[in-house]
Each structure stands twice: as structure tokens, then as C-alpha cells.
Design goal:
Radius of gyration: 30 Å
Family: Belongs to the GatC family.
GO molecular function: asparaginyl-tRNA synthase (glutamine-hydrolyzing) activity; ATP binding; glutaminyl-tRNA synthase (glutamine-hydrolyzing) activity; transferase activity
Helix content: 25-40%
CATH class of the domain at 1-43: Mainly Alpha
EC number: 6.3.5.-
Strand order of the largest sheet: 1-2
Order of helices and strands: HHHEE
CATH superfamily of the domain at 1-43: Glu-tRNAGln amidotransferase C subunit, N-terminal domain
CATH architecture of the domain at 1-43: Orthogonal Bundle
Strand content: under 5%
Largest sheet: 2 strands, antiparallel
Number of helices: 3
CATH topology of the domain at 1-43: Histone, subunit A
Region (Disordered): 79-101
Pfam families: GatC (PF02686)
Amino acid sequence: MSENSISRDEVSRIARLARIALTDEELDQIAPQLDHIVDAVSKVQQVDTQGVEPMSHPHSIDAGMRPDVEKKTLTQEQALDQAPAAQDERFVVPQILGEGE
């Protein structure tokens, strides 16, 4: 555990400030868990990061972008041709929002 361990009273105070109701058993259980977390974070803070470039992701990411090439697609008539219902050059679908209004 760390030198500055988190006391049960500190956990109680933090819980009260956060408006979280904790039982005595939960306070006894959470105090050492929080102490363990703080200890782990302090170890990470001790790592020498001098000369390490900041990054947004631990792995290099290749977005795999393809060239933007214009291709032939369906015409509006072809798309609507197989639709169960079409009206005014649009698909007709059942109403799901605001039904019964």
C-alpha cells in the first residue's frame, strides 16, 4: 500500500460530498480499494516520459482511405422500382412516430 493510505473517514467524507450512501461494511471495503488505485496511479506518474511524443492512440492507425472515385449508382427510378410503395418519387413507409395524433 502507499505511504499516504486513504482512511475510512476520508472515504466517508468523499461519499457524503458525492451524496452516495455507504454502509459501514462498504466503507471498510472501499477504503483499501481506493488506496490501491491511488497507489497504482502514483506508480504510473513515476514513469519517465521525457522525449516521448504524445499520442491519441497506443497503436499507429491507418485509416485505410480509398480514393474518392465517382462510380455509377442506381438512378432514382431504379431504386424506387423495387419498393413496395412509392409516392412523389419517395419511398412510402409506415408511420411509427406520432401515431394516433
